[in-house]
Amino acid sequence: MVTFITALSILLAVAIIILVMLQQGKGSDMGAAFGGGSSNSVFGATGPAGFLGKLTYILVAVWMILVLSLAFILKSQNTEEIFNIAPEELLIEEVEEDEIPTS
Fold first, then answer.
1. Where are the bilayer-spanning segments (predicted)?
2. 99's torsion region: left (phi>0), alpha (psi -120 to 50) or beta?
3. 12, 22, 55, 61: least CB-packed within 10 angstroms?
4. Contact between 22 and 52 (Cβ < 8 Å)
């Protein structure tokens, strides 16, 4: 399950990056290079801004839910204590001067 959610999160992240780069910016940056500036596009008369913007918001919401659920699953699976020795139980050994290596 964790592997599936991780793979899906990576695919959604790549899709979000591609969608953001395809959108037409204020200066018609990357979106115009791929035909984003034309009004007779596949996305309708309003252009790709409305459709791609809504699709980006939806994908970001799904990605956010997946990442938060992945964090919750991994947190609940990892219940073992890493440091099970209390700090006051740790003993510091004193080393005598003749045991210290010198160069």
1. 51-74
2. alpha
3. 61
4. yes
pTM over 0.70: no
Token pair 């204020």 is found at: 26
On whether the CB atoms of residues 60 and 67 are closer than 8 A, the answer is no
Residue type, 33: A
**Beta carbons within 10 angstroms of residue 36's beta carbon:** 20
Tokens 């695919």 correspond to 11
Say how far apart CA 48 and CA 33 lie, in whole Å: 13
Calculated CA dihedral for residues 48, 54, 58, 59, nearest 10 degrees: 20
